[in-house]
Amino acid sequence: MVRVGLVGFGKVGQFLLDEFINQPDKFEVVFVWNRTGSALLKHSFLQGHPECILDSLDKIGDQDLDIIIEVSHPSTVIKYANKFLEVANLFVGSPSAFASKDLDECVHAVQTGKTKNSIYVPVGALWGSRDISRLAEMKKLTALNITMKKHPTSYRLEEGEAKTVLDRVLREETEGETILFKGTVRELCKHAPNNVNTMACLALASSPSLGFDAVIGCIVSDPALQSHVIEVDVVGQNGFKVQTIRDNPAGVGAVTGRATFDSFLCSILEACQIFEHSKHSKTRVGKVILV
Ligand SMILES: NC(=O)c1ccc[n+]([C@@H]2O[C@H](COP(=O)([O-])OP(=O)(O)OC[C@H]3O[C@@H](n4cnc5c(N)ncnc54)[C@H](O)[C@@H]3O)[C@@H](O)[C@H]2O)c1
C-alpha cells in the first residue's frame, strides 16, 4: 500500500484520483490539493472524504506520506520541490520545471545521494529513454535533437517569439508545416512549459553528457495532423545513430493524448514498485529516476 498526496486536479489529476480509488489495495489517498479548491468538491470521493482535501501546500509535513504526485504546473515544482522531498518521494508530472536553474541545487542533491527521497519523472511520450540514459552515463552520447509536431490548436504557448509565430499561423490559416521555435530545451521550456515535458525528460535522460543547454528541441505546427508526433534523433560516438518516430492519435486541439494518460499511470505504478522495494532499506538514498 502506497500513501499518496496528489498535487493538481486538472485532467491528469482527476484521471489519477479515479485510478487510485479504484485500486484501494495499492493506493491510499492521503490528500488532494488544487489551486482552485472548489474544483475538488465536485468529486464524489472528496465530498465523502473532506479530510483528504488539503487547502494549502504550506501545510504539507503533517501527514504520513510515501509519494507526492505533482500534476499541476511547473511553477508548483519550482516553489515546493524541496519541501515535498523533505517529507516524501516526489513524482514530477511537469518536468519542464527542471529547465529552471532554481531547481539545479535540488536535483544535484538528489543525484548525489544527499536525500533519502527520490525524484521520479514519467517518460511520457519519450521512447527509448533508458537507452539514451545508458549512452549518456557511458559518455557516448554526442547530440540529441527532438521535434514535436502537432495541430496548431494543440499548443499552449507563453507570450513571446514562438507564440507570435503560432498566432500568425492561426490567423492566416497557414497550411503545411511551420517551425514555431527551435532552440535548446532550456529555452523551449520557457515558451511551451505545458507542451514540452517530453523534451524536458529527454534533457534529464541525457544528463550528465548533454542536458538542458545542449539538447535541441523544435516545435512544429501542421493543421493536417490528427496526432501528436515526436521524432528523436540520437547521435553517439563513431557514427552511431538512432531515429524514433512516435505517432499518437489525438483529437484536434488536445494537448494530451489518451496514450499519455495510460503511460502516466504505468509510470506511477513503476515508481511505487521501486519505492516499495527500497522503503525498508536503512541505506536508502534518493535518486532521479525516469519511469
Ligand atoms: N509528463 C507528461 O507527459 C505530461 C502529460 C500531460 C500533462 N503533463 C503536465 O501535467 C500538468 C497537469 O496537466 P493537465 O493536463 O492535468 O492540465 P490541466 O490544465 O487540465 O490542469 C492543470 C491543473 O493545475 C492547476 N494550475 C494551473 N496553473 C497553475 C499554477 N500556475 N499554479 C498552480 N496550479 C496551477 C489548474 O488549476 C489545474 O487544476 C501540466 O503541467 C502538464 O504540462 C505532463
TrEMBL record:
GO biological process: NAD+ biosynthetic process
Transmembrane segment boundaries: none
GO terms assigned for molecular function: aspartate dehydrogenase [NAD(P)+] activity; NADP binding
Domain called Aspartate/homoserine dehydrogenase NAD-binding: residue spans: 8-114
Residues of the Aspartate dehydrogenase domain: 175-260
Pfam families (alphabetical): Asp_DH_C (PF01958), NAD_binding_3 (PF03447)
Similarity-based family: Belongs to the L-aspartate dehydrogenase family.
Protein name as it appears in the record: Aspartate dehydrogenase domain-containing protein
Lineage: Eukaryota, Sar, Stramenopiles, Bigyra, Labyrinthulomycetes
